[in-house]
Structure formats: structure tokens, C-alpha cells
Amino acid sequence: MHRENRTGVTFDAASSCVKCGTCQAVCPVFGARAVESSGARGKMALIEAVSQTLIQETGHYREYLETCLLCGACDEACPSNVPTLDIMLRAREKMASGVGMKTGKSLILNHLLGAAKTFNLAVRTGRTLQGLMFRRVPASSGLRRRFPLPLIAGDRTVPKLARHFFTDRFHGLVMKGDGPRVGIFAGCMTNYFYPEMGEGMIGLVAATGASVAVPGKQVCCGMPALTGGARGTVRDLAVQNLGVFEKYELDCIVTGCATCGGNLKDNYGPLLKEAGIPEDRIDGFVSKILDINEFLFQAGPAVQVHGEKVQGAQALKVTYHHPCHLGRLQEVRDEPIALIESMAGVQLVPMEEADRCCGMGGSFSIEHYDISKEVNDRKVKNIVASGAQAVVTSCPACILHIRDGLIRNGHGEIEVLHVTDLISARLGNQRSTFKVQGLRFNGVKQVIGKAGST
């Protein structure tokens, strides 16, 4: 998918769809619910009808638009190059300003998400109350609800909110080196649920000799607001993030979240322009965004684990899941594969449909968990068939959802790792909460131990 020059796409571009139906073969939602409105062709027909005022926007129309993972598979497969992903986003924006969002969703996306202090307070309150509302799943990592709760299914496993959030532990200039100045964009999943992933990123980036900074006042990238149609919220968040990162005079900004990276690279330019930010400041931010896989691949031997297999240890058999927002939207596919293949003691095995969506899709997995589960079950089946002991990916949200699917299907013994977890473990940055079989740890244990100061 070439995503350049998409800023001018409007929702009435749906009329360029010739209704060939190629998209249906690749659509995960259509694969689970084979009805016309589930696939991109049906949605393009509905959007076209609204644009021509043949039908009105209604609650049912909103449901049809929201029953989409925004994985971009239809966009990539379309023989007519119809920008279906961008059309969907524009249609949701129009829908939000027309028929409107559901009340609770509107409260979160239009008011809570953009108010950093209030949002943080809400998350901290959730952390305090999670023990009352959820119980730990025996013999596995995660929580399940104790009693019926809205939007959280009884058979869903969710991660525990971290005792100490990532930006509470690490903020400011956390590592001084002789190399470039690198900023860490954590993203909400890493910050609130998986701070150890951020900790691993700090260690790996520092191992290249870079100075590492974590702006403590960074906020959500705004992707939930963008996909929900709340463009004003994500525009405000973009301005806030620009301001806090500019203070550190960084050479590049690295993120381990595929969704955040895709949003920062693809959407922040137009959003900041709408906010009246000068072009040089926009370019000075957006052009510096790198996914952690890109950064580590470019960094070379300092963090690539070349060498022979560890004597006496069996190779860890892993497979790789390509996150939609990294492989398809950022075209970062080869770098994580090259990094994994370079590791001594690790064997990468292929997986069928490795680039097919896992079914997460942000709020989609909350609002449409029944469909999301079916999409996820197909991913789990492919993971199990690969024979891998662990599935590696590059998106915290995919990790959450795939882990839920593995546990729900009785395969909780298969570990789900971020690529930085695997590299960190191989280099020696093993954490007490993290286990990888078949690896011996040596190398740069001291890196993480030095981080954490401001």
C-alpha cells in the first residue's frame, strides 16, 4: 500500500469502487460474517448512497461503519486502488458530526481522552479498583471479570494495569550516550499495561550508544479518537505531543507500538497542519518517527544477536505475526524478520496468513467481541499449526488479543512476545516477569540497571 497523497481523500470517493468484490476474500470480518455489509464492497455502497443523499445516516448505518477492523487488507487488495481505509475514516468523521457516536463512546473520545490529567486519573482509579472487579486467571497471565460488566465478556482475558506506569518510572533524559538523541513514544498500552516493553526499548536503544529521553507529559497518540471520528480530539493530542517532544531536540523518535507509529507517521502531518503548525515544525517531528524494528535494524550489530546457537540449549521455535499497522500501513515487514532470523538460539518458523489481522482493531474488539473472537480463533489456529513455542509481534494491542485467544482456546502455554522482549532476553535483559525458553542470557545486563533517573 502506498499511502502518500491520501490527505485529499473524501468520503464520496466511495463512488470509485466498481463493486468487483475482490475485497471480500481478504476481509477478516467478512470471513467471520459473510454478509454484504460486513465487507468493504458493501460499506462502499452504503457510503456512496449517503454521499448521494439516497439514504440517510442512521444508527444502523453507524453500526455498519463500525463493524470494520480498519486493517487495510481491502485497500491493499483493491485492483482499482480505491483508498477504502481513508474513505472509511472520512465517513466515520462525517457520521460522528451527523448521527453522532454512542453516548459513552462520545464521552471518552470527545472529552476524556484529550484531557490528560482527567484521563490519567481515570486510569489510576481503574488500577485501584481492578482487584475488586477482576480475578486473576489461574496458571496464566491476565484477569477475568468477577461479575457481569458492560463491554467485557466473561471469557475474555485482559492484562492487569501495571503497578507503576512506564512514564512514572522513566521520564526525562533517562540514559546519556555518545550517539544520537532518541525519544521514546510509549503509547498507552506500553505505558499502562506493559511498562516492561518500554523498559526493554530503553535498554536496546541505549545499547547503540544513544542518549534516551522519555518525555513524561506525552499523551495518547489519538488513534482511538481518529478511528471513532473525533478528529478534533486527535488534532489536540497531536499538538500536545509535538510540544513535549520538541523540548528534547531529538534526532529520532522511536515507538514499539505499530498503531501509534502508523498514526504518527501517516496522520500527524495533516492534523498538525490543520492546527496551524508551521511546516518546518511538522517535518521536524513526523520525519523523525521510527518503529523500533526500523531503528534496531538500522542500528546494526550493537543490538542484532548474530552468532552460533548456544551450546547445550535447544533453539526456541518462534513464529511472527505481522501487525496490520506495521506491515501493511508502514510497510515494515522485512526488518522484524531479519532481526529474529539473526538471533542465535532462535528458529523462525512460518505461519499461514501471518499478515492477516488478529481481530483486535482497538474498540472493535470491545464493541464486537463475538466477531473479534472468531477472527482471533483463525489466528490462533495458524499459530498452533506452526508448531511455534512463542509468537512474536510488534504491537502491544496484538499481544493482548492473541494472548486472550490462546488462553481461551487452551493454548496458554504458547508465549506471546514483543520483538523487543525477544531481543532483550537474548542480549541479557531478562526480567523477573518474563520467561523465554531455550535461551542463555549474557551481554548487556547493565543497560537497564542504569535507567530510571530524570
Brief rundown of the structure:
The chain is an alpha/beta fold and 454 residues long.
Question: What can you see in these coordinates?
Answer:
This protein has 23 helices and 11 strands. With 454 residues, the chain is of the alpha/beta class. α10 (195-206) packs across α22 (419-427), α12 (231-246) crosses α14 (268-274) and α16 crosses α18 (334-341). The chain is globular, with a radius of gyration of 21 Å. The protein has a 5-stranded mixed beta sheet with strand order 3-5-4-6-7, sandwiched between helices.
List keywords for this structure.
single chain, 454 residues, four-stranded parallel β-sheet, globular, alpha/beta, five-stranded mixed β-sheet
Note poorly predicted spans: 306-312, 430-454
Our Rg estimate from Cα atoms comes to: 21 Å
CA(first)-CA(last) distance: 40 Å
Query: What structural class do you assign from the helix and strand content?
Result: alpha/beta
Mean pLDDT value? 88
Count of extended strands: 11
| Spatial strand order of the main sheet | 3-5-4-6-7
Task: Set out the fold topology.
Blueprint: H1 28-32, H2 40-51, H3 59-66, H4 73-77, H5 84-97, H6 103-112, H7 116-133, E1 134-136, E2 143-145, H8 166-169, E3 172-175, E4 181-185, H9 188-193, H10 195-206, E5 211-214, H11 223-228, H12 231-246, E6 252-255, H13 258-266, H14 268-274, H15 279-286, E7 289-291, H16 292-299, E8 316-320, H17 324-328, H18 334-341, E9 346-348, H19 364-367, H20 369-386, E10 390-393, H21 396-408, E11 415-418, H22 419-427, H23 446-450
Helix pairs in contact: 2-5, 10-22, 12-14, 14-15, 16-18, 20-21
